[in-house]
Batch of 4 targets.
Target 1
Amino acid sequence: MTQQQQIQVDPVSGALGAEISGVDLRAPIGDDLVEEIRSALLDNHVLFFHDQELDPEAQAKVGARFGELEDYPFVEPLAGHPKVIPVIKEPHETSNFGGGWHTDLIYRPQPSMATMLYAVEVPKRGGDTLFADGVLAFRALSARMQDLLTTLRVEYNVRHLAHTMIQRGNGASTGNRSMPSRVDKAVLDTSPVHPLVRTHPETGERALYFSREHTINFEDMTPGESRPLLDWLESHMTQPVFTTRFHWRKGSIAFWDNRCVSHCALNDYQGERRHMHRLTIAGDTPR
Ligand code: SIN
């Protein structure tokens, strides 16, 4: 006998994303509920929840139901909550965190499986987050192009961030001075190479897996040779038809699967404060 579904799953766009209702994430989360949410994530690639009241401890507890929480190498975590980082932009600040299209921690040998972002304080308008679906973007390509891209591997390094942002006229940094920074030198010195087309370890779907701002070249190719295709891939993958846009409220959560989704935080709320809490869940080696 199948048990009745505990959550309601309402897709929010033709591409990806679903709003989840009928759940209070502060309450104990049983295995059935974890499985329902996990299955909704695999089907929709990003999930949105509203009206949740989660302090950092409760958020970490929810996140840990889906996998091992990991450290973030460049921002000091919240005091007493080593796996939760603040993502803050103060009214006087102009650059934001996560303001270019990317996939979380792709510059590590084992990038994040998923990210859970919780809205503590949001601007009156703006500050939305965009999500792009790598599976749909890959599927839309010609068979010849799919074959070609499947042969390519991308070299990543977080040091490229400033370089690629400047080159594309997006400013020197996506960092934010009010966020307490730290530097994990070991991560800076690591340059993993990942397949451009990733097979999702749970669904078997193939996705464009790619973060333009953390790379300047394909493996065994020069930056000059790589640039036109890297730029084209980003513009292809982020076409509106492959995306969805999330409008935050205080107490909203976005929970996304980094193995097949890229995202970008809009920086269109100058003079207002935006404050989020973020955790990431450890992933495996992309294949
Ligand atoms: C991030 O890139 O993880 C932050 C996204 C956001 O603040 O909307």
Target 2
Amino acid sequence: NGPNLNLLGTREPTVYGSDTLADIEAKCAPVADKISVETQWVHSNSEATLVDAVQASMGVHAGIVLNAGAYTHTSVALRDAVTASAVPTIELHLSNVHARESFRHLSYLAPVVVGQIAGFGAHGYALALQAIAAHIRGDWS
Ligand code: DQA
């Protein structure tokens, strides 16, 4: 989770909903349990810390769910980290970025991720967990 997502709950609730990041993590816990997925949650406002986290996932994590926030639309460094790590990654957004301002339509991540999930609000995190697990396992049933 990238910049400003620590403000979820109070940040533009009409766009991002009223769940905090901690609420979302708590709601995802039983979903992860159900599909036997272990999660590690990371938040940083710093691009460098996010690059470090993606690099640190190599050989440690089977997949990444990445809501890079505004860095989605700006960061070649984060895109390069995703490519270099070769860890399967899903790009996630609470809002439907394609229905918003045109600068949100460009994603530097989109060409190097498995796929995108956008517009489902907090539920998108649960969908992304299920999607990345199914992708890695090659089994969605
Ligand atoms: C976001 C969408 C981005 O455009 C924005 O900069 C964010 C949040 C989302 O989850 O909808 O910070 O990634």
Target 3
Amino acid sequence: MGQNEPILGERLERVLFDQGTIRECIAGMGGRIAQDFHGEPLTIVAVLQGGALFMADLIREIHLPLRIDAVSVSSYLGGTESSGKVTFLQEKLPNIEGRNVLVVDDILDTGRTLSAICSRFREECNPKSIRTAVLLSKKIERSVEFEADYVGFEIGNEFVVGYGLDYQDEYRNLPMIGVLKDEWIGRI
Ligand code: 5GP
Ligand code: MG
């Protein structure tokens, strides 16, 4: 780590993707999405909290008229392992009736979160179509049958933080993605 690196970055054991690499990846993905949806109205729905950062950068790489919205769910409850249950933290779902929808999340792990969101949207919101985009996808056997339409990077089965991804609600503001040093697990 460089001398001017913020102190938070020094808590990482390993950097997987730095800021420039993430930016390039998102630019490429935005271009592909713009091509695929060309001429179609589009609503991007971020999965809060982590998906918000990815959405903010991604939409500026999709040069089409579009709308944004968000859905708030929780599955990790702040720890490093999925609780297995997806809880919707808001009563009102986005207004996506008749719209092409792209749900964006930071990472695809067990698949439960995006699968639950897409099912609920299909059942209750009457969208025209639903696709999904994730910055990271863990190369693991999913708990449910689900794959995203747009994937930035594939990673192994390890717990990562940064660029929206948290550990106990912190580290989301790290501009890079990496693995925390053991000494920072279990303490803030
Ligand atoms: P899934 O429902 O696919 O198991 O998990 C998706 C959610 O779990 C993501 O939105 C993210 O909040 C959280 N998650 C999964 N893997 C990681 C990880 O390695 N690090 C962090 N910080 N969150 C993760
Ligand atoms: Mg999440």
Target 4
Amino acid sequence: MSQAPIISILNGPNLNMLGTRQPELYGRETLSDIEKLCRAHAGTLGLAVEFRQSNSEGDLVTWIQETRGRAAGIVINAGAYTHTSVAILDALLAAEVPAVEVHLSNIHQRDSFRHHSYVAKAAKGMICGFGSHGYILALDALARLIKGSSEA
Ligand code: DQA
């Protein structure tokens, strides 16, 4: 039996604080709740999930590098590094693995410095404003992309 394609779900700084961090913006679910949702949904799509979080930009760069040739897709919520990190953009471009950008909040309704995303330049698309459901939508989008590329 062939192995399920791996989706690497990467979470950036302060997302470990979900549940207690500005719940009016980010909701009451913890990151571990979101991980459970992702694992359950990925299972229904025939995908395997690696779920990680770091407050460090370097960890995120290393994890993105490690997806090359190994993972079938990336879901990334880079947190505040979204708006600052050329290093994460470069890592995503080098990985050549399809990536979907996720944000819990609608970054376009927030401070103007959150309107720009470096990640967006390397992502297939962005989902923002749907809370944790954004991760589910991202998995659906990747499942479709992966299926499409294997049929090509
Ligand atoms: C976020 C939006 C970012 O602007 C912010 O820095 C975060 C969370 C989101 O999921 O809505 O840390 O990525």
